[in-house]
Amino acid sequence: MANYSVFEHLKVSRPFSRALALALATVFLATGAAVSAAHAADTDGISGGPASETGADGRSRFSYQVAPGQQVVDEYEVRNTGTSAQVMTVFATDAFNTPDGGYGLLDTGVAPTGGGSWVSFAAGAKQLSLPLAAGATQIIRFTVNVPADASPGDHAAGIVISVKSPSGQVIVDRRVATRVYVRVSGAIQAALTIGNIAASYQSQLNPFAGTTSLVFTVKNSGNVALAANAVVGVNTFLGIGVTEPQHTSIEELLPGATRVVTMTVSGVAQLGYLNPYVHLIPTVDKDALNPGQFRQIDRDTTLIVPPWWLIGLILIAASVWLFLVLRRRRDDTNAAAWIAQMEAEAKLKYGTTEQDLVGAGAVTASDASPAPSTDTKR
């Protein structure tokens, strides 16, 4: 079917159709303009971020290095980027890692018990109700009160801007947030560990083009947030690599968080013995506090992959060898049988065998020898 716009159709239609199309186009444009105007009037938008007293300061997160019992004061900029006035609720809550590696925050109605509970606003309030006109911006001040008994390491939280609005029969809670990391001084431990590790092999028609899948669990066993770079490869006998290793980045893990990582390595031959391995190099985000030097973590496992292609070649070669040996034995047996048959036929034809003839000749010669002469004197 031809794909025309309304105006393209006007150019190719007859006069009556042209007039009808023009009327439809007028209605369409009027309706579209009304819908667009309605959407423009209903546009909502919120944003926020770290700031100073004069406005946004370019930080992507709040990061503090503090001592137990210390207090930190900072500013947060709240912006209504929509086209209508909105009432915004600003509060802080605890952070956690989502299963897919994201930076999650508690639901609006859940009370924080960690770093989020340390944040307060004017007059010690735990949240603010902030009405803002369309396009308006306001900078608010907040305080982080670190408990005297706070444990060393990173305590992750988030400052949230929430706007609730009705949508049909439900209330929609739209939220934006900025990360907060409070690192309490003390015994800082930057450590990742690799827990369970399992490998599997998927063969292909080409015995040198198989795929090895490696599934392993990464845990942040320290007390500071860490990301990582992972290298996965496969070795065989004597530590010889069988293909190019694969690289990936693992998103930031908060202290105590775990993540299951799956990686595949292609072009792995069926060599019988395979040794898949993982090298894990901890890193930190570019805007994060650096805890110091990191230690690489290594894990490997064993995978037995029978080289069916080689076994097949050996079986074929063995079959050919066995066939040749059996055929040679059969030929030897047939030759011996033929010789025996020839001897039997000769005996029947001449009445005796060569051995019999030789024996008979010896007897005849003996009988035919002259008798010894005697010399008798008369």
Topology overview:
Elements: H1 6-12, H2 15-41, E1 46-52, E2 55-56, E3 62-66, E4 71-80, E5 86-97, E6 103-105, E7 119-120, E8 127-132, E9 137-145, E10 153-167, E11 170-184, E12 192-202, E13 210-220, E14 226-235, E15 246-253, E16 258-268, E17 272-283, E18 297-300, E19 303-305, H3 308-350, H4 354-368
Parallel strand pairs: 3-11
Antiparallel strand pairs: 1-2, 1-4, 4-9, 5-6, 5-8, 5-10, 7-9, 10-11, 12-13, 13-16, 14-15, 14-17, 17-18, 17-19
Helix pairs in contact: 1-2
Task: Please characterize this protein's 3D structure.
There is one protein chain. This protein is 24% helix and 41% strand. It starts with 5 loop residues before the first helix and ends in a 10-residue tail after the last helix. It has 4 domains: 6-41; 46-184, Immunoglobulin-like, CATH 2.60.40.2310; 192-306, Sandwich (Immunoglobulin-like), CATH 2.60.40.10; 310-356. 21% of the residues are buried. The protein has 4 helices and 19 strands. The chain is of the alpha+beta class and 378 residues long. Mean pLDDT is 83; it is low at 1-41 and 362-369. Strands 3, 5, 6, 8, 10 and 11 form a 6-stranded mixed sheet that branches. A 5-stranded antiparallel sheet has the order 2-1-4-9-7, with no helix packed on it. Helix 1 packs antiparallel against helix 2 (15-41).
